[in-house]
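Figure 2 data, in text form.
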Amino acid sequence: MPASKDQRTAATAATASDDERRAAGMRSANIRDVARRAGVSASTVSRSLRKSSSVAAGTRARVLRAASELAYSLPQAPDRPALVGILARFPAQWFFAEALTGIEQALAASDVRLVLHNVGDPTSRRIFFEHVVPLGQLDALVILSSSFDDRERAALDRLGIPITVIGGHAPGLTRAGIDDQTAAQAATRHLIGLGHRDIGLISFDPDDLVGVETTAARRRGFESALSEAGVPVAAEWVIAAAGSRMAGGVKATEKLLSQPRLPTALFAMSDELAIGALQTLRRAGISVPGQISVVGFDDHEMAEFVNLTTISQPVRLQARTATHLLLERLASGTDDPVNTNLPFRLVVRGTTGPVS
């Protein structure tokens, strides 16, 4: 009977050259030495030694045998602190900065080292997936409200390390966040409750794959609230912003003002977009909320100062919750994902009022 693939790989690994064995013996063996000996990838070695359930029993046994022959074990405390990677799209923006603060608060008493990777920049994102991921040096990963294509998600899964997500949507991964769809629905219902039927949307860019899940969820919430009220979505009042910052809100609202007819209310997918919209409307001499009501999303630190009605989400609490879940998984070695939705609330301020 022909040998199986595993049997052929094991035979190849077992007949490693004397030169290779001597070379590994002259220095401390590393994870790549074990991978060569076992005939697997470095990430498979990492997952096998961490007892991940995603590795077949035969493969794990081969890795353990190779590691034993080379006297190799994964570095663990106290040899070195656990290395936790953080993936963020826009580290300087409010949501991400708040989340990073929450992560640091949760890790204040832990022997953990953090390394930040900006996956909003295409070059940095490519470097992470092409150079950082293959090394298999991360002990855990925190993802801040980011989305991944199938190839990137498969690469993350192959790491075989605990991963938690803050905000966003990540089926199969441990997550702490809010229900973005329900929150957007609540914001839109507030406007409908004030008598508005002509309601526009300033959206994140739906073609930005890095944040596609959050954008889609908030769009669904907006549309479902209109649908239940029997209000059609006016395509000309749905404007995709270039970016998610105030400048994006300015540009999107300028585009909206070019329409022959204006809505009486606007829902913006972030407070930064909403603040940009407020500035543009007021510069154009349009009264808020007299002529157009505006609702944002986040409860950014500036929202109170511009008297913005918004959806408040507890970003730091999301971050602390996700990080504690990550620490528990690091300590226990369990892989079972946990999805935690935290409460949000509508904060009514001075930018919304009854339709005139």
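Caption note: The domain at 82-178+316-342 is CATH 3.40.50.2300 (Rossmann fold).
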